What does this fold into?
Amino acid sequence: MSTVKAYAATAAGKPLEPFEFDPGALGDEQVEIAVSHCGMCHSDLSMWQNGWGMTAYPFVPGHEVVGTIVAAGDHVKKVKVGQRVGLGWYSQSCMACPQCLGGDHNLCATVEGTIVHRHGGFADRVRCHWAWAAVLPEGLDPAKAGPLFCGGITVFNPLVQCGVQPTDRVGVVGIGGLGHLALKFLRAWGCEVTAFTSSESKREEALGLGAHHVVSSRDSAQLGKIAGSLNFILSTVNATMDWQALIGALAPRGRLHTVGAVAEPISLAAFPLLSGQKSLSGSPLGSPATTQTMIEFCARHSIAPTAEFFPMSRVNDAFEHLHAGKARYRIILENDLG
It folds into this structure.
């Protein structure tokens, strides 16, 4: 195979620079994807800065890939050369453990991260196991699809795993890269949707994205008015919240579910959980099957992330824009590596 052109950082927080590498022989069950677009995620930012202590340098970020399969190993199934596909946070799983055999490939103990100890999608090509390459359906704009393969599936997976019903009253905490997609999904899912936001300036945006109601997460009076009313609350933030107030907003048998990587322990009193038979849970990204379901749902309901575009050659400007909290709401890089 020919050399892959990419952008890489040589150390934590260092600007990304042009980088080339030899990917070696293509595996029997691997596909190679010619990248057309790649979303930029806060996880790329965290890995670039080695915020989770597991980054290997030189580091090529990028795990919200959209492109076309240009090569396939001899034992590849389901996908073929010429198909347009997407690739997210996971690029391979063992395919033999109870989780993989049960359809929960995302829970495989040895699941491989697309940008963990391997090179990601800020490049002209990237590889993955065929099972993790999701075929884009007709009607889904490939230029905007990238963030669905990380941010999108992160908030879609709980709807499936937790059995959220169209008749449910659901809350979304945080109207950002994850939360804005959750609002779009839940509105199309049929739920009555309440957006929790700490920023009053986002009220009209939240309503435009699909929320029926908007509540300030910092106003105890507003939180008190919705006490006991929600069947499900999805928290997308990575900051400490008034968790007890959110539990209080749940109806009996309600669930508070987090997909935000909150650094500090979540502290809850037991009695409100016991008396209302309420629960707290979390989840990672979804399986290949759930991811495929999600993008077909997006095509059916014309759902796409709200995004800003940068050429890949301006990757450092895009990182700065993201780090400054200015992204509304996702950033997508367009491949101009040539």
